[in-house]
Amino acid sequence: MSARDVILARVRAAVEGVPDVEIPRSYRGPEPATDGLVDLLADRVRDYKAVVHVVEEAGVAALVADSLAARGVRRLVVPEGFPETWLPSGGFERIGDEPRLSAADLDTADGILTTCAVAVAETGTIVLDAGEGQGRRALTLLPDYHLCVVRQDQIESGVPGAVARLDPARPLTWISGPSATSDIELNRVEGVHGPRTLEVVVVTSG
Amino acid sequence: MSRTFLGMPGTVSMMGYSGKETFPENAAKAVRNSQLRFNLRKATGTIRGRRASVVGELPDWPDLRQAGKAIKDHTLRNLDTYLVRLEEAVTKAGGHVHWARDAAEANRIVTDLVKATGETQVVKVKSMATQEIGLNEALHAEGITAYETDLAELIVQLGDDWPSHILVPAIHRNRSEIREIFVRHMSEWGRPAPERLTDEPAALAEAARLHLRERFLATKVAISGANFMVAETGTLVVLESEGNGRMCLTLPETLISVVGIEKLVPTWRDLEVFLQLLPRSSTGERMNPYTSMWTGATEGQEFHLVLLDNGRTGVLADDLGRQALRCIRCSACLNVCPVYERSGGHAYGSVYPGPIGAILTPQLRGMGSELDRSLPYASSLCGACYEVCPVAIDIPSVLIELRGRSRHPVAERAGMAAAGWVFKRQGRLARAQRMGGRMRRLVPKRLPGPLGGWTDTRDLPAIPKESFRDWWNRTDGGAR
Amino acid sequence: MRVALFITCVNDTLFPDTGKAVVTLLRRLGVDVDFPEAQTCCGQMHLNTGYRAEGVRLADRFVTVFRGYDAVVVPSGSCGAMVREQYPRLADGGAFPGAVAEAVADTVPHVYDLSEFLVDVLGVTDVGAYFPHRVTYHPTCHSLRGLRLGDRPRRLLEQVRGLELVPLAGAEECCGFGGTFAVKNPDISAAMCGDKVRNVLDTGAEVLCAADNSCLMHIGGTLTRQKAGVRVMHLAEILASTEPGDAREREESR
């Protein structure tokens, strides 16, 4: 018998006659969006020591320009599909991922600018699914600075709403603040291998 | 049950423990280590408060806990179905699925996969399963070097140490000890520690970043575990904090994930429960910094999944003990346990320490050794572990059940039999009480044999002249 | 209402004053309490140490002795939790023959910790006690997480005249007794008790109170070994205390 058949046979023998159980789902499921979600998301992202801005659509490009200037970002990776209207007209060197950047190239970039797929207000999380304006996973990993633009209609109140909106077939990265560790005396320290600075721009649809 | 390898077999020397010593013997040494006591008290105290605060934020925590428990029970009941479904989904998405009955088979599969790439170096994401099977040692024997990339695992690897906690394997080390390890040993493994390294946690994290950066960019094979596998979609999930996981999962050309068969959940939707339960229970955060989810071969990567049994089906066959397989390795039970806080993780002689280790290790490894027989007694049955467990594993009940299955010492058996005989008739109890009352002045200050453990640090209560029942009879319940 | 006292073997043998206090207190509140003499031990020591067969026999004995009472009052959190938590679990696991399992199902719902009986059944929190001392309360694990006594003991203590109740840091943490744990893992047990004692001393209390004499025997044994000058008292003994002037009334009530 193959290892597969042996393990499956062991499992079947082990659970034979064991009653099955119903799964109670009395916890909060997806909830409709409310006006408070923008503020809740902003607060919860700030709790992770990330920088958060809330702006209207018309102000995004100017805010992005200010943020890049404030950080001194020159070489900025901008993935395919990032909305041109959110991009400042100049002041930085725009790097695309086609042809694919090598890991070493990416490592020399000053920052990465992306959209996201979903955000979770309650946990202060943004989720990237490698879709339009987000690029492949390594893009938001190697540069030390990640600037992410979130649209208000992408904000879910809790985790169940986000899970329901995401497509498991895509590679997903849930990001809650900058990279951090709690490995030294269980104290949280921001900034290890991933981007040490996370900046989030929430675009209100008002 | 055959003996299952759990990373720390009884013959391996670890941290001054021979591995043959029992939990009480190991713990007796640990309680005298004031540095260890200080480090553990500080760390567990911090995390308890954080967990309590973020768990208290969720009004539906008890509902999530019940759902988490039920999802796992349902999965375990139908594990064969879901394993096959997972295999189909992963394969359909371009991944390769391998099955390993035990540690040796898993190690051989992984070693062969690495060899097939022609590489001699691999980077690793922190994984309990690969620790459990001793993968690093197995790779080393075949000329392959495994580099741990999680900060705590790095501390353990550089310090030639053993992990002492599920989530934070270097919890027994404080910042100055970590600095010392970095300064002394980083150069043996790669880029040396920065000059004039301080013991500020931020500086230590920066040192780890610099030490591993080149390694991440250059290494072509990565090995991981997974927190969850979704049968329905074939998706694997890894929760982490530092970004070392993303580095390993994303950059190398080949990814090999070694995952215990109990890590399954049936559907995509089930993640909505566990992504709430796990981070809040483990690091006490609303969400951990990074969670990666991938399905099959992703972004051009070669992907292999090794499904590991290694004793799990034996645990699954046990009606009471199988609930230990619900465990999502959050380590909340360790952090809250008053015994763990004082003994540290090494005393348990297994990669799974603390309350969950005390029920998992004897079930996986059997109770053939003195150490493993002593583990179910490494608890005062205070119940704090059960209360915080996000999947409601009734650890005290399983401990009691396991106690009933192990061999007891001769003197204890005699004592228990005598007590049982006395309690069988109230007359015997009354006579024993009267004898105790008459001899009460003769009780020594220090008790003999194993009972001496009591009188070493505590006085005995004064034995009363008259028992309650004799008083009741003499006074007609106090009426006379 | 037919009320029985399950004194517990530890209290019966080593702490008869606790039993006398329960009787005094309940009589003062107008409850006539019965002491079924056939009682011995709930089986906790055997069951928790892995001697199932002996433990099951003692559980059988317990339900035989106490079946039919409207209330069985237990002045011990761990013995109460053993009966209320473990007996039904043993029954579910098929440990008892059918008739005994029925007796378990009949008896267990009538088993109350003393504080539950006072607060929930009798509906009193002011039991007319007087105890002019600084007291701190240790909730004990099985009272807290087993029986879930919650704030009942605190509410009772708060109503005691003259009593100053001071909070205990780390109150919910185990004192390290754990029955045979104290003997099998003496070093860890002593380390746990050391921290408990430090917290107790930090309160500046004269008296450490709990609803379980086993834990008090452990903490108290450490306190006296350290000549710490803090005494331990069971909740029942504090609640039974009255002003000197009330002594006659107490005598009459006997």
Structure, explained:
- The complex is a heterotrimer of chains A (206), B (480) and C (254).
- With 206 residues, chain A is of the alpha/beta class.
- Helices cover 24% and strands 26% of the residues of chain A.
- Chain A has helices at 3-15, 37-47, 60-71, 103-108, 159-165, and strands at residues 51-56, 75-77, 93-95, 111-114, 118-120, 125-128, 145-151, 155-156, 172-175, 180-184, 187-190, 197-204.
- Chain B is α/β, with parallel strands linked by helices and 480 residues long.
- Helix content of chain B is 50%, strand content 10%.
- Chain B contains 23 helices and ten strands.
- Chain B has helices at 23-31, 34-56, 61-77, 79-92, 103-117, 128-132, 135-141, 151-158, 175-189, 201-218, 244-250, 271-282, 312-316, 332-336, 338-343, 354-365, 370-374, 384-388, 395-405, 410-424, 426-438, 452-455, 468-475; strands at 96-100, 121-124, 145-148, 221-224, 228-230, 235-240, 254-260, 264-265, 290-295, 302-308.
- In chain B, strands 1-10-7-4-2-3 form a six-stranded parallel sheet, sandwiched between helices. A four-stranded mixed sheet of chain B has the order 8-5-6-9.
- In chain B, a hairpin with a 4-residue loop joins strand 5 (228-230) and strand 6.
- Residues 9-18 of chain B have low confidence and may be disordered.
- With 254 residues, chain C is α/β, with parallel strands linked by helices.
- Helix content of chain C is 53%, strand content 11%.
- Chain C has helices at residues 9-14, 16-28, 44-49, 52-66, 77-92, 98-107, 114-121, 141-146, 152-158, 181-184, 186-203, 213-225, 235-240, 247-253; strands at 3-5, 33-34, 71-74, 111-113, 134-137, 164-166, 207-210, 231-234.
- In chain C, the strands form two sheets. A four-stranded parallel sheet of chain C has the order 2-1-3-4. Chain C has a four-stranded parallel sheet with strand order 6-5-7-8, sandwiched between helices.
- In chain C, helix 12 (213-225) links the parallel strand 7 and strand 8.
- The longest helix of chain C has 18 residues, at 186-203.
- Chain C is globular and about 55 Å long.
- Residues 250-254 of chain C have low confidence and may be disordered.
- Chains in contact: A-B, B-C.
- At the A-B interface, helix 1, helix 4, helix 5, strand 9 and strand 10 of A face helix 2, helix 3, helix 4, strand 1 and helix 8 of B.
- Chain A: Pfam families: LUD_dom.
